[in-house]
Amino acid sequence: DVSGLPPSRQPGMAEAAGDAGLGPAAAQEGAELAAVIGATVPTGFEQTAAEEVQEKLGSASRISRDRGKIYFEVPARSLPQVHRLRSVDNLFVVVQEFKDYQFKENKEDALKDLEDLVKKLPWTDPLKVWELNNSLKKKKTKRKKHNLQSPASREKLSDGGEEGGADQNNTNDQEDCAQNPVAVAPTGGQDTENPQGVTSRNGVEEEEDNEQSDVKVEVQASSESGAKAGDGQTGEGQAKVLRFRVTCNRAGDKHSFTSNEAARDFGGAVQEHFQWKADMTNFDVEVLLNIHNNEVVVGIALTEESLHRRNITHFGPTTLRSTLAYGMLRLCDPQPTDIIVDPMCGTGAIPIEGAAEWPYCYHIAGDNSPQAVKRAANNICSLLRKNESKDSSTGLGVPLDIIQWDICNLPLRTGSVDIVVTDMPFGKRIGSKKKNWDLYPACLMEMGRICTPGTGRAVLLTQDKKCFAKALSRVGHIWRRAQTVWVNVGGLHAAVYLLRRTWERAEERRPFW
């Protein structure tokens, strides 16, 4: 069923993609070329992302049944604005989408169907979009040459949304499959079965037989290197054999094949069709094959590394993804002149995102750890440098301050804060679950004291849901729970709570002196 897609994506429109010689002309066609864009977003924040797309691009989004993805259509000339969206992790252009794909029960037949699909897909326009996207990236890298992040700090970041020394290998963020640094599987190599509990929106945990694997399969490149029709063109117009890889993400228990096998066979057909060369690491094109039960989406990646890495250069043990920080901030609907506090800021992901996107609010960040404060300060400096390089004539500051403090004893006047947004300690890598039983109620009391009665709100992320519920029941006179969003943070099921401050006056704290 492809009826929901624009005419350019209907299968009948597929031209023989072998003739898709991609030349510089693609850029000129950007004006009228349309693209269906798929975006991966933090699970639970699909609606937030859809609202941002509507607001900034004027396009309506469709939220996928496969959690953590949205789809929207834009003219290809809007690609730069698409890359500036704050709520999306990874972007891809949809080649074609099948809402109810009928897989054969026999493994060989099912895989043969996937192979045959390659020849029938309407590749031409999506490849033009991919090329246009590349020309934008080239311009951007030229501008950024002088401001490159050091390789060491880039390596330090794991993609689960939490960066973590020894724990790094354990982060398996199911919604960020397409970019996880999973070890490369050799051709026909092992399949990473990864059954995970998926939390449905109403918070009931359902065990799903998920193989949310990101198996990158290298298809054995044939020895012939001769350029054939259908090779891409470099910007200068000389023929060049494009290098590619196929990434398959499969979820559901009704398939007779593994993601590894699907990627291998589909990749073999892609190679045969375009005469591209398979390359796991230095690829030009990443073809995505997303299979979620009977929903199949074929796409071409438009982002090499997740956009959630945009603000942070100095990572701590549990750095929050910028996209999740944006979703949390948006949930509390900041208004101009609001004072927004993150009392446990860690490396500063939330206030930095806040200052970048809500510059008419005043953001205060604090933490009790001197290392965290130092890292956050370094990240703020990086943001300032980035702002300067954008427009050197006006060295604008950011409305953000960072302080070392004690979360239970904040040096802020009672009722002086509009919004508190923070990532509470999960008790896994920082602190402990036992400590949380004392810390959470004390935090909620102190947040209640500094927030304006009646209008104040708090958005708090935690994985320690039991402890949080108990703490909230103890401070029910000052905080009311308004909304809960279930999210996935580095493979952990967590919750984002939106709390509203009651009119009840919080008890005054004893003075410092």
From TrEMBL:
Domain THUMP: residue ranges: 192-302
PROSITE patterns assigned: THUMP (PS51165), UPF0020 (PS01261)
CDD domains the record matches: THUMP_AdoMetMT (cd11715)
An example molecular function term from Gene Ontology annotations: RNA binding
Residue ranges, compositional bias (Basic residues): 138-147
Cellular component, GO, one term: cytoplasm
Keyword rRNA processing assigned: no
Main subcellular location of this protein, as a coarse class: cytoplasm
Region (Disordered): 1-25, 138-238
Record's keyword terms, sorted: Cytoplasm, Methyltransferase, RNA-binding, Transferase, tRNA processing
Family matches, as InterPro entries: RlmKL-like_Mtase (IPR000241), RlmKL-like_Mtase_CS (IPR053943), SAM-dependent_MTases_sf (IPR029063), THUMP_dom (IPR004114)
Compositional bias per record (Low complexity), positions renumbered to this chain: 14-25
Gene3D superfamilies: 3.30.2130.30, Vaccinia Virus protein VP39
Cellular compartment(s): Cytoplasm
PANTHER family on file: THUMP DOMAIN-CONTAINING, TRNA (GUANINE(6)-N2)-METHYLTRANSFERASE THUMP3
Name listed for the protein in its UniProt record: THUM3 protein
Classification lineage: Eukaryota, Metazoa, Chordata, Craniata, Vertebrata
